[in-house]
From TrEMBL:
A Pfam family that the UniProt record links to this protein: Melibiase_2
Family indicated by similarity: Belongs to the glycosyl hydrolase 27 family.
InterPro entries: Aldolase_TIM, Galactose-bd-like_sf, GH, Glyco_hyd_98_carb-bd, Glyco_hydro_27, Glyco_hydro_b, Melibiase_C, NPCBM_sf
The name this protein goes by in its record: Alpha-galactosidase
Keywords in alphabetical order: Disulfide bond, Glycosidase, Hydrolase, Signal
Catalytic activity entry: Hydrolysis of terminal, non-reducing alpha-D-galactose residues in alpha-D-galactosides, including galactose oligosaccharides, galactomannans and galactolipids
Ranges where the Glycosyl hydrolase family 98 putative carbohydrate-binding module domain occurs: 474-623
EC number: 3.2.1.22
UniProt enzyme class: hydrolase
Annotated source species: Croceibacterium mercuriale
């Protein structure tokens, strides 16, 4: 759509296109920036909050180099909130020279260049933090912190608002940073009625972000501001060496559009060092497998290994946290003070087998193969044809689990070789394997076996290659399945559902978490999406597309007819009859030799309630 192309900034303006379901022949998820695999590194926030300084940051950076973590991929050293002094009256941002002595310059203009040079000289990359509004999170929510910007009211306006181009030019062009995390508190917490504004400490900015109620966010406005940031990043990083991290905690329905602009996008509010809260953050990302691709990843927040439920006395939980983040293709950003992190926790960060999964070039986030409130099985497709499997016990009692060949889409009559990702032990089984999973434990293996689908790949095994360009969801809905933890205290009425994303496209599931089924026929594999959707799928050398399509049995509406069409590089390849609920799945098949981009369009004339789940059953790319 024209509006989207303009807001994205980096995209060339395309012709006015009124039908969002019309094929475009192009992959529309972001590929700009340096995040072809999830970013890895360290961030100051969980270790120090705003109390950071140069010595602390460089000491952790040195440990990353000395312990070999840098060689394993941990490259970004990111300053979170707390690096600034204030904004000078001509708009220039000044670094806090007391905290970062190397930023002092004779003319007082300050420069982070010596700091970033130092990190670059260590073979590392440098990141920093800003806010999309005028003011920041700590100014709003941590007024007692000592390390807040000082000066006049306007000097304390350190956020990007009104200064996007100037700041990005300074941070990247002049100072040499490589990564920026952009928060949204300034767009959320400074309404005219807020105490911080009424008291005269900060200027009002009408809120356009609302974390609790998506209808109160101005989604196009927020998206437009991030689009401006992206344009500036492209301008000042002609070498494409930048990372744009969106931090609006899953609000403004960012799940649906961050993938078109940024490299990583937070799916939830802040992680805390509590088991329940980690599960919340995990839940906000684990069902978004089709919204993450090389170049744009789901971000359930930074690792909190090192504190609370994830400290050295809780290695089971700490290992679970790390395993899950690896399977989610989450950014692996260490959040502990590495000057005194116990060795068993350093060993967790250094688990090469799990790092390899996270950084696998296939870029496929794990898919839920088994899902209950207590136990979940995740399966991740790897570029070399192996699979990785994790079994998470969320509960406080041990669970006897049975892992079956079917969970991994492998044949049950041939041996499956397993390598334990924590102790390296090899084993094999045929058919199924019984495992005991301790409370809060996540068992994980790399596995190799014979594929059930011998001659091709199900699209649901390749989520990194499938992009829900239009997912059919017209009104964002809150997801009732996300764990609601008590970690922020028990005042008030509890954590009510407020993360949107319910109804988004899914692998091996309907958009509402049901099994895929058309006229009584169950599909263990397939893509579930709402009608009036357009999925893009990259084809890397396969020659035939096959699927069985229909309106899912879980649809409330029995009358609406849906037509399924498959396009190859913008050209119609095949189309179904109009199908409604209860009609048997229709087989769709097409020669896709030489086609690089498929588009799967499910169109209906009237899905007024926006809740018409359709199923691309067994959708697969075949060799012959
Ligand atoms: C929050 C953000 C945290 C941290 C903090 C800084 O909004 O989610 O990760 O950056 O702001 O104040």
């Amino acid at each position: 759509m024209l509006t989207i192309a303009l807001l994205c900034g980096s995209q060339p303006a395309i012709a006015q296109q009124t039908d969002p379901l019309a094929p475009t022949g192009t992959w529309s998820a972001n590929v700009d920036g340096a995040a072809i695999t999830p970013p890895m590194g360290w961030n100051s926030w969980n270790a120090f909050f705003t109390d950071l300084d140069e010595e602390k940051v460089l000491a952790s950076a040195q440990v990353i180099v000395d312990t070999g973590l840098a060689a394993k991929g941990y490259r970004y050293i990111n300053l979170d909130e707390g690096w600034w002094q204030h904004r000078r009256d001509d708009g220039r941002m000044l670094a806090n020279t007391d905290r970062f002595p190397s930023t002092r310059t004779p003319d007082g203009a300050t420069s982070f260049r010596p700091f970033t040079d130092r990190l670059h000289g260590m073979g590392l990359k440098a990141g920093l933090y800003s806010d999309l509004g005028r003011n920041t999170c700590a100014q709003a929510y941590m007024p007692d912190q000592t390390n807040l910007p000082r000066g006049t009211l306007t000097q304390r306006e350190v956020g990007l608002y009104g200064h996007i181009d100037q700041d990005i030019s300074q941070f990247f062009g002049e100072w040499g940073f490589d990564y920026i995390k952009i928060d949204g508190c300034g767009l959320r917490a400074y309404g005219p009625e807020s105490e911080r504004v009424v008291s005269g400490r900060y200027r009002a900015l009408d809120p356009i972000l609302n974390l609790e109620t998506v209808a109160l966010s101005d989604i196009p406005a927020v998206r437009g501001l991030f689009g401006e940031v992206k344009t500036a990043l492209m301008r000042y990083n002609p070498d494409n060496d930048f990372v744009l991290s969106l931090c609006i905690w899953g609000s403004a329905h960012v799940r649906a559009w961050a993938k078109d602009i940024g490299n990583v996008s937070r799916t939830s509010d802040d992680i805390t060092p509590h088991w329940g809260r980690m599960l919340t953050n995990f839940d906000t990302a684990v069902t978004r497998e089709l919204y993450a691709h090389p170049g744009s990843w789901n971000d359930p927040d930074m690792l909190f290994i090192g504190k609370g439920d994830f400290d050295a006395d809780h290695l089971t939980e700490a290992r679970s946290h790390f395993t899950l983040w690896a399977f989610l293709n989450a950014p692996l950003l260490i959040g502990s003070d590495l000057r005194n992190t116990p060795q068993p926790l350093m060993d967790i960060f250094g688990n090469s087998a799990l790092i390899a999964l996270n950084q696998d070039p296939g870029g496929h986030q794990a898919v839920l193969a088994y899902d209950t409130d207590d136990l979940q099985i995740l399966v991740k497709t790897l570029a070399d044809g192996d699979k990785a499997v994790a079994i998470l016990n969320r509960s406080s009692a041990p669970v006897e689990a049975t892992l079956t060949a079917a969970h991994m889409k492998l044949r049950d009559d041939a041996a499956i070789a397993t390598t334990d990702l924590w102790n390296g032990e090899g084993a094999s089984f045929t058919g199924e394997m019984k495992v005991t999973v301790a409370p809060r434990e996540t068992r994980a293996w790399r596995v190799r076996g014979n594929r059930a689908l011998e001659d091709g790949m199900y699209l649901s095994e390749l989520p990194g290659q499938v992009n829900p360009a239009v997912d059919g969801l017209t009104v964002p809905q809150v997801d009732p399945t996300i764990h609601r933890a008590a970690s922020f205290g028990t005042r008030g009425s509890g954590a009510r559902p407020f993360y949107t994303g319910w109804g988004g496209a899914r692998a091996d599931s309907t958009p509402y978490g049901r099994v895929l089924q058309v006229a009584g026929q169950h599909f263990a594999s397939g893509i579930g999406v709402l009608a009036n959707s357009r999925l893009e799928a990259r084809n890397e050398g396969h020659r035939r597309f096959t699927a069985s399509v229909g309106v899912d049995d879980s649809a409330e509406d029995a009358d609406n007819e849906v037509t399924f069409a498959l396009y190859g590089d913008g050209r119609l390849l095949t189309r179904s009859e109009p199908l409604s609920r209860g009609m048997p799945a229709q087989s769709l098949e097409a020669d896709i030799t030489g086609v690089t981009l498929l588009e799967l369009v499910a169109r209906t004339r009237d899905a007024a309630n926006g809740r018409l789940p359709v199923t691309w059953g067994d959708a697969a790319l075949m060799q012959r």
